[in-house]
Amino acid sequence: MSLPTFTAKSTAEDVAATFGEQIRGKTVLVTGTSINGIGFETARVLAKYAGLVIITGYNTDRLNLSAEAIKKETPSANIRQLVLDLSSLTAVRKAAAEVNAYPEPLHVIIHNAAASGSATLNPTVDGLEPRMATALTGPFLLTKLLAPKLLASSLSSSSKSDEFTPRVVVVSSAAHAFGPHGVDLGNIAHPDAAKYHNGDAYFQAKAAGILFASELARRAKGRIHAYSLHPGGILTNINQKGQDKLDLISMGLLTPEGLPDESKGAWKTMGEGAATTIVAAFDSRLDDESGAYLDDCVVANEKVAPHSSNAETASKLWEITEEIVGEKFTF
């Protein structure tokens, strides 16, 4: 089958329609699925094809709204809600135990969730910086605890044509490159309030996501495929409020009214923003590209900043995260 070339203007609907047969019957877990976010759009579109879409969030009311919206559009969608607070290691373990008890296999994890910013450091219950906890330590532990279920799904195919190597997708950002030094490895376990800056915390969290995906791909040795990506500039629920909105206005990316400033670069629709996520989750052309970084629906490793493509840094970050969560993540 000849596959289309996707572009910055491709939508999640376009990509999902192309890979409908690959998506059909699969179980996909998507974190951060509040309405008016990329994760919701990802889940909404995948629900038209997938066997089961697990939507997650720490707020039950928001989860209910998301589930209702998806079911209203696609009554046949199989949606399951999972309460998951990625900023709490205890909460991650509880949610992972729930998923491991599901009778269905698990084929894809999409780490889409992100924490809102703040003017000052507000440590999590585990004493971590919230953005890093939501982008790295929480996803790391969740993936570690669900890895056996992911691996088992690749062994449960009834025929050669049904075989699918499980995938882990990390939604990062081109903004990872804005932080000149990448992840401050010495500040992760015990963040220093004096060093805290909202923008830098965001840049570091996104850099950490890329390093996590690349190291997961290396250590999994083909048993799990992992990818990171830049979804594009999208006006989502997280950048329309609080410190994040103020920072984007100060950077000139949003107008004083909080609207996208098109003169500073093209902004994407929600559908265009979720397209690269679905490519990373299901495009068969990526089977030999595990560890890759995607932008505008294609592999764009050349766009990764040197500090986020350093193999030694990725390995050190993995080991530091193991120490924080108190568990070794091995295959």
Description:
It contains ten helices and eight strands. The chain has an eight-stranded mixed β-sheet with strand order 3-2-1-4-5-6-7-8, with helices on both faces. It is globular and about 50 Å long. It starts with 11 loop residues before the first helix and ends in a 6-residue tail after the last helix. The mean pLDDT is 91.
Short description:
By secondary structure, the chain is an alpha/beta fold.
Taking all residues together, what is the mean pLDDT? 91
Give the full name of the CATH homologous superfamily.
Answer: NAD(P)-binding Rossmann-like Domain
Number of domains: 1
**Secondary structure: helix percent:** 25-40%
Cα gyration radius (Å): 18 Å
Multimeric status of the protein: single chain
**Class by SSE composition:** alpha/beta
CATH class: Alpha Beta
Q: What spatial order of strands do you see in the largest sheet?
A: 3-2-1-4-5-6-7-8
Distance between the termini: 34 Å
Low-confidence stretches: none
Shape: globular
* Number of H- or I-type helical stretches: 10
User: From the 3D coordinates, which CATH architecture would you assign?
Assistant: 3-Layer(aba) Sandwich
- The CATH topology is Rossmann fold
* Major sheet details: 8 strands, mixed
GO molecular function: oxidoreductase activity
Pfam families: adh_short (PF00106)
Keywords: Oxidoreductase
Protein name: Short-chain dehydrogenase/reductase family protein
